Amino acid sequence: MGSRAATTWRLAGCSGRGVLRDAARRRGSSLRGGGERAASLSELLQSSVGDEEPGEGEAAGGRREQRSPREGTVLLFPGQGSQFVGMGRGLLRYPGVRDMYRLAEKVLGYDLLSLCLEGPRAELDRTRHCQPAVFVASLAAVEKLNHLQPKVVESCVAAAGYSVGEFAALVFAGAMDFAEALCAVKVRAEAMQAAAEAVPSGMLSVIGRREANYKYACLEARRHCESLGIDSPVCEVSNYLFPDSRVIAGHIQALEFLQENASKFYFTRTKMLPVSGAFHTRLMEPAVEPLAEVLKSIEIQKPLICVYSNVDSKKYMHSKHIQKLLVKQLVSPVLWEQTMHSIYQRKQGMEFPYTYEVGPGKQLGAVLRKCNLKAWRQYSHVGVTEEEEMFFTVCLGSAFFLARILHAVSLLFFFPLCILN
User: What does pTM read for this prediction?
Assistant: First the structure.
């Protein structure tokens, strides 16, 4: 893979180390610490994301220029469940996207593009298919963003992905090769589907009141399963979405018990999710070894920007750290709410970065709104259909003009601009 690491994302369908390395080259950045790193990205990272460490300039007595957090961007990558038939149609006009799908066909052994565009939906929704589909569509959406707004990509300071979306975030950040990461996603998806088919299980979306005690509810559900003769039943929180919202996963009998006793546990709304298994619980343990083995064969580097882990909501630190937590993620709850707090935590009065959800669906934007309304106000979605393509282009063209109008109005009425937002 060494020679491919120098290949550009655009020419090889992302088989190199990502858009960020291309951005670094365009800015004339040099190698530092064993890998390419855009100086401007490094500065933005330290001024707007936190955990600042002294650099070469400070060591010499210099002072790094502080930049506004608004000069940096955050990219969010969706996970399984965001897929739909027709996704990707609005991306095929951009350079490199068709090459990505051709390479995906070689890696996967089937025509992923046709499955995404034409279905059937039942096949696209299968775990073994939808995870690679979301992974490729999300990175293809980055191609669109890079074509329409290259500055957004160049100034990205942080990324996070929901479940399988972490693989796309790591490829974007230059930590993994596209083809190799896709191979890992393939193994992961097939192993997770096999684990799901071994035990009747599922996932239940829950909205609870403040009095809701999710751990106690899960304990009661497990006791119910034991009374039915189920050995070592599983029922636990598998996804932390936003305040008062959880996804509980486990044996079907446990989830049915929770639905039937929703009022007892102060659940205001419950809904079974259209998935085949209890993902991010110990029922996925059979998938651990296959994923661990394939990750050992992949070259993983330290990300060029901050990428946050679902497992602990903290930044990945080095290659071994990535390898370990990607495996652990299979059987650990997704701490998405906590990750949103980690990314957007800042001192009072500080501006929030612009956030872009790249890929199918807008679920992560909806969750961000619940977690942090102020951060959500700087949110945009980079879609994967022709309709979304037209809307996004129009928004880009009118954004500057609208900002000038708002600024003029604010001056006219002696109000700060933030009041109008």
Answer: 0.81
